[in-house]
Here is the input.
Amino acid sequence: MKAVSSRMKESYFELVRQFPLVPIRNERQYDSAVAFLNKLAIRDEKSLDSGERAFLDALTQFVEDHERDRHQFGMADLRPLDALKFLLEHP
Here is the structure.
């Protein structure tokens, strides 16, 4: 098993201090997670160190899990205009 570098641990845990990695349980947590994720995701991926990438991957997974579990609905249930609006808002 590869040893974790101190730089990776430092950057990872700094992000965890700013935004703890826990499963998302409600919409307030979801909105906060997405906002934090967006701040990190706008940086050039090549500028992220391994700790930052690990944090980004974990937070992305929590957000995706929440979206899959809580935000699923049938597009067939929407009127065409509502479906189009949804698709434009959620690329």
Notes: The mean pLDDT is 83. Residues 6-89 form one domain.
